[in-house]
Design brief:
Elements: E1 5-10, E2 17-22, E3 30-33, H1 34-38, H2 46-68, E4 75-87, E5 90-103, H3 109-122, H4 124-128, E6 132-139
Parallel strand pairs: 5-6
Antiparallel strand pairs: 1-2, 2-3, 4-5
C-alpha cells in the first residue's frame, strides 16, 4: 500500500507560502506559511496534519483492538496534540498527547485500558513518530 501527498513552497522561509494536497483529494492546495505555523495560525501546518493522522490512526487501531476482545465501540473520539519544540538539533516534534473518549457497551475498564494501550503502541503512526506519546483514555 502506498499513499502520496504533495507540497509546493514558493519564496523564502519567513515570507514564502505553500500549499499541501493529498492524493485522495481530501486536501487540495491547502495553504500554509511560516506565520500560520509559528505565529498566528489560521491555516494548516505539518504538525496539525500529523495530529490529524495520529488521531485517525489511533481511533481505527483502538476499534481493531476492541474487536479482538469481542467488543464494538459505539463511538471513539480522539484528539491528538502535537508538541513542536526548538531543541539543540532544531525544531522537533517531541511529544504527542492522545485524549480519547469512547463509548463501548459491555466493556470493563480493564479490557478498555488494555485495548487503548495496545492501540497506542501498535498504531502505525505511533510507530512512525520518534516522540513521547502519552494518553488519557476515558471509557464513558
Amino acid at each position: 500500500m502506498l499513499r502520496k501527498s504533495s507540497a509546493v513552497w514558493k519564496g523564502g522561509l519567513k515570507d514564502g507560502t505553500g500549499t499541501v494536497s493529498t492524493g485522495s483529494g481530501a486536501l487540495s492546495s491547502a495553504p500554509y506559511s511560516f506565520a500560520s505555523r509559528f505565529e498566528k495560525g489560521g491555516q494548516t501546518d505539518p504538525e496539525e496534519l500529523i495530529a490529524a493522522a495520529h488521531a485517525g490512526c489511533f481511533s481505527m487501531a483502538l476499534s481493531g483492538q476492541l474487536g479482538q476482545a469481542n467488543l464494538t465501540a459505539a463511538s471513539i473520539a480522539t484528539t491528538a496534540a502535537v508538541t513542536l519544540e526548538k531543541t539543540d538539533g532544531g525544531f522537533t516534534v517531541t511529544a504527542v498527547h492522545l485524549a480519547v473518549r469512547a463509548k463501548v457497551p459491555g466493556a470493563s475498564k480493564e479490557a478498555f485500558d488494555k485495548a487503548a494501550n495496545n492501540a497506542k503502541a501498535g498504531c502505525p503512526i505511533s510507530r512512525l513518530l520518534n516522540a513521547k506519546i502519552s494518553m488519557e483514555a476515558v471509557l464513558e
